[in-house]
Amino acid sequence: MAAVTPQDDTRLRYAWRVCAVTSLGIVLIGVAGSTLNVALPTVVRHFGANALESTWILLAFLLVNTASLVFFGRVADLLGRREVYLTGFALFTLASLLAGLSPDVWFLIGTRALQAIGAAMILANGTVIITDAFPPDRLSQGMGVYIGTLSVAQLAGPTLGGLIAETAGWQWIFWLNVPAGLIALGVGAGLLRKMPRRPKAPVDALGNVLVFAALSALLLALSEAGSSGLSSPVFLIGAGLFVLLVPLIVLTGRRSPSPVLDLRLFGGRLLACANLASFCNALARSALILVVALYFQAAKGLDAFAAGLSVLPVPVGIGLASPVVGMLGRRVSPYALSIVGAAMSAAGLGVLALAADPATPYWVIGGGLFVAGCGSGTFLTGNTTQVMRALPADSLGVVNGFRVMVMNVGIVISVGLSLSVLTASVGPALRAQVYAGTLSTLSPVAVGQLMDGFQRAYGVLFAVALTGTVLAALARSPRR
């Protein structure tokens, strides 16, 4: 066993301080996202939002965040990773203040988009800053703590969001980000060192615009399919635009020296399968808290706070699994951890698919949520470590932005797809009542129809999770 030099000890101490700072960022993003998932019915009732507006309160953040991740990874390579990271904190804090002052629902959607830009600056660079700070043999430990911290945010978020919505008002869901953001900005500015800038390369502006347009068209098609069917003109136009834009994205990517979607990253089996497994895992898990929170409010008639308590097993599972897996990472390969995590996520979703009935006892639902949470924590730690170890240092920023973007595309599609499958069972007339959490007061027949929607939604997510498990198994490093 090699002796630990003073230089190694100094680097490790700095690495853990960096992990603490970046964890503040992920707490801010995690809490902001998960609180609104549970408090959505309260916000919908306040503004009297229709089904389309209700969907876009959530999707505006995901869409803008996803489309700008690679862009800000490239910008950070050019302008400095520390500078872009701290600017993200400032912008996210300002947008949170404005969101709480929203006079109408579309102003809120706009400030959510502004929040998403700040979040993209943070997410595209946090993992890279950790990777640069930690020695390679300790990276899995740092990643385990970083991802475990996200689960703490998700743990507090739903309960906190439900409590705030029922007591102080939904505005404080956003305003609580302001002091937290200012603290994170001050601590980060004082602690983070400047990182060397990478060789300059042009930003693929056209590629970013095309990706944003393609994702917007896809989301519009998915959100319309559930209420109006596959023959709806809006669905046909959205799906047609998406199909037309994908080849254009590929074409512009081949001509750009720094494409927003660098398909060369899929050239090797490890990165291709690991990124696709990450996509499947994100698609399968991301809407879980939202769908389950809607289940307890729309079908069971619980308030937002009680619904927030009901989804706690997911973040508890992630929070317990991530640091434990991080410590195991020095003895067990990230490859093996990703497979085990993906399989556990699929098992948890399988339990939920079989338990979609109002008469199902909570311990069964809670058990499925806990297993899915443990699986997500295990997979995310193993998969992230596996991918980041495989990357050259001079491409960490852009490629990590691409990696997070792939996951976010899964999240975007997951929210649109699962809500569409879920609400299709009750028809367009009652769809708004599902989002507002008031369906249980209208008709037992409608609730029974909604249960069919929950079962179908979980079934689709379970199938996707199984596919992710197979892809994780294929993401083996080539033998040398």
UniProtKB/TrEMBL annotation:
It is found in: Cell membrane. Its main location: membrane. It comes from the Bacteria. This is EmrB/QacA subfamily drug resistance transporter. The keyword Glycoprotein does not apply. The chain crosses the membrane at residues 14-34, 54-72, 84-101, 113-131, 143-164, 170-191, 203-222, 234-253, 274-298, 304-328, 335-356, 362-381, 402-422, 457-475. InterPro entries: MFS, MFS_dom, MFS_trans_sf. It is a multi-pass membrane protein.
